[in-house]
Amino acid sequence: MSPRRWLALPGVQGAVCVVLLLLLWEGASALGSLKPFQFPPPSRIAAASWEMIVAGFPTGTRIGTHALVTIQRILTGFALATVVAIPLGLLIGRVPALDQLTLPVVTFARSVATLSLLPLALLWFGLGETSKVMLIAYACFWVMLTNAIAAAKYVDPVLVRAARTMDVGGPALFFKVVLPAATPRLLAGARVAIGVGFMVIVGAEMIATVAGLGALIMEARTFYRTDVSIVGMIALGLLGFAFTAGLGWLERALLPWHRGLAEVRR
Amino acid sequence: MTRSRSREIALGVAGTLAFLAAWELAARSGPASALFPPPSRAIAEALAKLSLATIGGHVAVSLGRIAAGFAAGAALGIAIAIAAGWYRTFGNFVRPVIELLRPIPPLAWIPMAIVWFGLGEASKVFVIFLGAFFPVLTNAYRGIASVDPTLVRAAQTMDVSGIALLTRVILPAALPDIAIGLRVGWGLSFGVLVAAELIAADTGMGFMIMNARQTADVGVIIFGILLIGLAALATDWVLGVAIRRSVGRWHAV
Known about the structure:
The structure holds 2 protein chains of 2 kinds.
Chain A: H1 3-8, H2 10-30, H3 42-54, H4 63-94, H5 96-111, H6 118-125, H7 129-153, H8 157-165, H9 170-204, H10 213-222, H11 226-254
Chain B: H1 3-29, H2 39-49, H3 52-86, H4 88-101, H5 110-117, H6 121-145, H7 149-157, H8 162-196, H9 205-214, H10 218-246
């Protein structure tokens, strides 16, 4: 292919753009037009990444340790939320009266910003792990609950009626018809919930901890190590991306007949 | 009003009252604890400690920050989405950069926001801006990129091109997606508010509750949580109505 044809490929154009930006950034910082404290050049960020891998920041706490702490907090909160929200949401979604009773409370609780619970969580659960896990659990819970309610509510009534005519009812109806039909939306909800968990964890780690990626980026700034902050940001972005992509992959692997659920309510 | 609709409302009211009554009873029946007040006492305490003018001031400051950050995020998001959809090459260049930055949570930018914009208003507005910018941009771009090509070709056969094609055909067709982006972005702006107001603030609803933590004023905290929730709910409702009025006439949103 001629160079012109190469440059016409969208992926190549994107890569060129990213590389050019990085070079420009590095050059501007070498010439002194960007202050390295405010815009640590890519070379400094690369060096800081290496430092985070071998030595760690604060000294001894390597990037892997921070990442593991953060992942553990998110997954614990996510698991707690899911275990309660899925059965409860499926129940609410199958019983219209229950759905109407709970709708205002669910709508309100969902619009409560999770981080506004931060001061309450700190007073109730102390400065340790519990308050962080509970915040993640709260955030994930309402996402999972609303998706589980919708999942059970919008099961195609034809499927249910068809099963009934074949004398399928009770638990068999639930496990053989409702649950499989609800699964795509449950998985889509899980993907959104994990994403929300990654948003909230940074706020939860802003206070009273030095472990975790959120704590790392805040702590590094107070020591004028913005290069380390940016390494933490990149790690958070990569992890968040990997988890949502992983769940998307799981969705496609488990439900090959169901190609993507475009419309997902948060 | 139909019967089923009024039944729905009655059940909703009953559910809300039952929830509040359960909370009130649970808090009153246990050992009297300052950490878990019943809702009535929490609100009474908050109103006794803070004047209505103070509370109103915090609400106004927070809403102002959200409005500023959201407006900037939405405007820039839509502008970039249009440019990236309109000029394919620009889109090919800018999309990878956006896709690389998008997974970074808005709150993770707080240290850099402080370094770039200082401890004043600008850094708080910047964090809120990030909350709105990415969802608005990605939804608007999806809407613009997935406009039915038949519409565009039909318009072109009628000699519609350039700006007219954009404003009369592409943007109206993309409006439902833009509307979704705006609502998600508005929600996220509220979601990051409290954390943004942790940055050296002395006003705003986020400051109000974090300040109450210092003195363990659970009443004020609970009142503030309810207030932030209500503000988010009410403004989202207004946004929803405005969107339905402008878009919903020919699209189901």
